[in-house]
């Protein structure tokens, strides 16, 4: 209960909890139930066991990992770094673990973040070479850290698509008229949240008008789509709201300003239409049970098209569309372009997704270049596998035969022949890989509704080298949502009543709450 339901450890000392136990066991006495210190020790023991299970599971993963990273500050103004780890299992299932909510006591500089990230990997005995990419927010300190990690370890840096959407939408909503309309909408919602009378009368009007009995939604500044949900709910409840506000018992004379002006309702209708494609993109890209990063270029293209085709008539609506189009182009322009200077994991993931392998979002000449990059990576993957196999054979003593004197005299000739044979074998292996890559890109794309991971599970035998590459790239999430979930959980654990918890206990309780059902 303490872990699963995120209850405070002090709950076992509360009178209400003791009374509940008495209901189950009338013979219960207060001194029978262990106190907080006992359950704290049990929690720490469970943490140690779960930690070992997670570390053991990660140690058995053959492929690469992707990390997500975010920084959060608790109610007690203590900062923590949240790190989650993602990979594809042997049977092509998306897997993830929360690694840490590390308390941060020093300045959040790029160099310090690098050190903290490396400490997390050391804690779980994960080699830096096993990390393919890190998904993170757009904060200057985090961007600086990722630049350093890319230089030091070769990790790809991917900015969270969710944060990017947040920045695009927030900028587009800065129009003065839009800001005023949203301010009035928030005030209206707040009025019904605060007034019990208004809330009760609203339910009556919903009943009379046969409108869904849904409550109003208050948006939060850190989640742009909460603004969309607030607008959507207000429009759904417009007439019951207006009828309630026109009741003199609910709204005294001179207080009718709570209702929105007709032109503001019109603007909310347009904003709902303009924001809808962004909501669709946010929901899709935040998914955790399916691969998302490979679909990002298509989502960006689709979002651009949907925004451009939006037919909003008010000047503020048109301002929103113009700003949104500009934001998409500025922040995501490089997503759909190929650069020979730098590996783009998003485009490579799309190339290795059978739904998008034709790369229709790229120019024809860039498609050829991406296919060439995939071929180069596949050859490297095949060579790495060959060298690893050779190491294993050597370690096992395979092929060890005592040389005679004649063998030594003939060694130079044999060595030259062996080298030529090895070179010929390597050329053959390279050609096999090239044929594999050519066959993959030659085949038709599968339906957008198909599961690419299921496809790879069924076709892994046909594409043995490419399948390893696919596991490296398709495990990358498009957003750092998992890291944000850590802090949502940590926020529950650090609620007002539990704000006095030590940073260490917050870290352990969060780790248990997030990983309890995963091992």
Automatic annotation (TrEMBL):
InterPro entries: HATC_C_dom, RNaseH-like_sf, ZnF_BED_domain_contain
Protein name: Zinc finger BED domain-containing protein 1
Membrane-crossing segments per the record: none
Biased segments, Acidic residues type: 409-421
GO terms assigned for molecular function: protein dimerization activity
Pfam families with a match to the protein in the record: Dimer_Tnp_hAT
Domain HAT C-terminal dimerisation: 436-512
Region (Disordered): 409-428
The organism's place on the tree of life at top rank: Eukaryota
PANTHER family associated with the record: ZINC FINGER BED DOMAIN-CONTAINING PROTEIN 1-LIKE, ZINC FINGER BED DOMAIN-CONTAINING PROTEIN 4
Coiled-coil ranges from the UniProt annotation: none
């Amino acid at each position: 209960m303490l872990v699963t339901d995120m209850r405070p450890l002090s709950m076992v000392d509360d009178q209400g909890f003791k009374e509940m136990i008495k209901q189950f066991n009338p013979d219960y006495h207060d001194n029978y139930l262990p106190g907080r210190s006992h359950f704290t020790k049990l929690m720490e023991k469970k943490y140690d066991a779960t930690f070992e299970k997670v570390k053991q599971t990660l140690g058995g993963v053959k492929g690469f990992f992707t990390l997500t990273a975010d920084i959060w500050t608790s109610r007690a103004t203590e900062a923590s770094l949240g790190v989650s780890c993602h990979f594809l299992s042997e049977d092509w299932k998306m897997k993830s673990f929360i690694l840490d909510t590390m308390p941060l006591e020093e300045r959040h500089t790029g160099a310090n973040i690098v050190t903290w990230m490396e400490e997390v990997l050391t804690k779980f005995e994960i080699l830096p070479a096993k990390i393919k990419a890190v998904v993170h927010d757009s904060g200057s300190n985090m961007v600086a850290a990722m630049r350093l990690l890319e230089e030091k370890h070769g990790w790809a840096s991917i900015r969270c698509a969710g944060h990017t959407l947040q920045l695009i939408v927030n900028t587009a909503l800065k129009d003065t008229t839009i800001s005023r309309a949203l301010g009035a909408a928030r005030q209206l919602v707040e009025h019904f949240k605060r007034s019990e009378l208004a809330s009760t009368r609203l339910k009556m009007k919903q009943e009379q008008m046969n409108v869904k009995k849904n409550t109003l939604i208050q948006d939060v500044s850190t989640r742009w789509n909460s603004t969309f949900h607030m607008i959507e709910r207000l429009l759904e409840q417009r007439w019951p709201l207006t009828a309630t506000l026109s009741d003199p018992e609910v709204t005294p004379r001179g207080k009718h300003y709570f209702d929105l002006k007709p032109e503001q309702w019109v603007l909310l209708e347009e904003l709902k239409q303009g924001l809808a494609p962004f909501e669709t993109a946010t929901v899709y890209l935040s998914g955790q049970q399916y691969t998302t990063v490979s679909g990002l270029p298509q989502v960006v293209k689709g979002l651009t098209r949907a925004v451009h085709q939006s037919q909003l008539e008010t000047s503020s609506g048109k301002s929103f569309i113009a700003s949104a189009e500009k934001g998409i182009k500025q922040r995501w322009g490089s997503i759909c372009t190929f650069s020979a200077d730098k590996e783009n994991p998003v485009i490579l993931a799309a190339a290795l997704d059978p739904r998008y392998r034709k790369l229709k979002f790229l120019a024809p000449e860039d498609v050829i270049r991406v296919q060439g990059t995939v071929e180069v990576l596949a050859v490297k993957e095949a060579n790495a596998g060959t060298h690893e196999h050779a190491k294993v054979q050597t370690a096992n003593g395979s092929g060890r035969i005592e040389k005679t004197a004649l063998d030594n005299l003939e060694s130079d000739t044999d060595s030259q022949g062996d080298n030529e044979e090895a070179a010929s074998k390597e050329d053959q292996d390279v050609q096999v890989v090239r044929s594999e890559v050519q066959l993959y890109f030659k085949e038709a794309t599968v339906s957008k509704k198909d599961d690419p991971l299921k496809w790879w599970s069924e076709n892994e035998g046909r594409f043995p080298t490419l399948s390893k590459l696919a596991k490296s790239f398709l495990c990358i999430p498009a957003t750092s949502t998992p890291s944000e979930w850590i802090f949502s959980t940590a926020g529950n654990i650090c609620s007002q009543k539990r704000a006095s918890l030590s940073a260490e206990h917050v870290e352990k309780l969060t780790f248990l709450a997030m990983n309890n059902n995963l091992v």
